[in-house]
Amino acid sequence: LDAGDLFGIVCFFLNSDYILFSVVQDEFEVVASSYRFTNMNSKRLYFVLADYEEAGEVFHTLGISAIPIILHVPPRGNLKRQDKMDFQRSGIQAEAIAKWVHERTDVVIPVMRPPNYAGPVALFLLLMLVCGLLYMKRSSLDFLYNRNLWGFLALCITFAFLSGQMWNHIRSPPFFYHNPKTGQWTIFSQGTQMQFIVETYIVALIYMAITMGFILLVDATDTKTSSSKTRFYAYAGIGLVVIVFSFLLSVFRLKYRGYPYRLLFP
């Protein structure tokens, strides 16, 4: 840099020990890489990573006590309240970060993500599997008119979306988190901005169990069923709904700190 050059800094402050920070870091690095690719000769803006474990004095100098945080340092160094990105309002996606940077610096950054071929390949394999099954069953396609089959498929799609599988597809979170220092395994991310893949599987199973409980309650109203089966379906359905829904509330309380309601479990 030449003496007298004016430039801004977009700095991401984090602690690499926390998995949520690594997710935001990945999005931040996507924006930084996009800026380098589209503004190769520009010296208006620099992207910086500051890890508390390696540069704690920077945090103390700037008076930063809460992380993660993305901070814009203007060329003149006069920080304003708007120079701190609000994740709750804007989100943590690379597109949101690029938009916020544009608002603070007037620098347009087209977000360029690396290509991910896993989705198209999986879709192609699924289509090949379906086509193969239809070809093998070409002499008898009566199962396509089975209401139970289509109802089951509809429920599977519903459970997948309710549990957050689309979020996993977009964000590519880790399967779970293992703290290398303490050796502790974490399957539920504490907070609303992050989730693990195994967490979504558990949530999907919870929704399946609750649905099964309601199906048992509906079957208990069938007048053609014997009284003993009716009582069994009713008790099993009520027990399944109450117990599993209590566990769901516990998971919700873990994600949303301060949520006041619970049923059976803390």
Automatic annotation (TrEMBL):
The chain crosses the membrane at residues 117-136, 148-167, 201-220, 232-252. It is a multi-pass membrane protein. It comes from the Eukaryota. GO terms for cellular component: oligosaccharyltransferase complex. InterPro entries: OligosaccharylTrfase_OST3/OST6 (IPR021149). Keywords: Endoplasmic reticulum, Membrane, Signal, Transmembrane, Transmembrane helix. GO terms for biological process: protein N-linked glycosylation via asparagine. Pfam families: OST3_OST6. It is found in: Endoplasmic reticulum membrane. Subunit of the oligosaccharyl transferase (OST) complex that catalyzes the initial transfer of a defined glycan (Glc(3)Man(9)GlcNAc(2) in eukaryotes) from the lipid carrier dolichol-pyrophosphate to an asparagine residue within an Asn-X-Ser/Thr consensus motif in nascent polypeptide chains, the first step in protein N-glycosylation. N-glycosylation occurs cotranslationally and the complex associates with the Sec61 complex at the channel-forming translocon complex that mediates protein translocation across the endoplasmic reticulum (ER). All subunits are required for a maximal enzyme activity. Belongs to the OST3/OST6 family. This is Magnesium transporter protein 1. The gene is Exosc1.
